[in-house]
Amino acid sequence: MRRLLTDALQQHGFDVVGNAEDGDKALTACLALRPDVLTLDLAMPGLDGIGVLRGLQGTDLPVSVVVVSAFSPAHGAHAVDALAEGAVELVEKPATGESLSDFIADLGAKVRLAASSRRRRPVASVQAVAVRPVANGRAKRARAVLIACSTGGPQALSELIPKLPSPLGAGVMIVQHMPPGFTGSLAARLDKASALHVREAQAGDRIEAGTALVAPGGRHLHILANHTATLGEEDPIGGLRPRADLTISDVARVYGRDVLLVVLTGMGKDGLEGAREVHRAGGRILAEAESSCTVYGMPRAIVEAGLADGVHDLGRLPEAISREAAA
Question: Residues 270, 279, 292, 312: which is the catalytic one?
Answer without folding.
Answer: 270
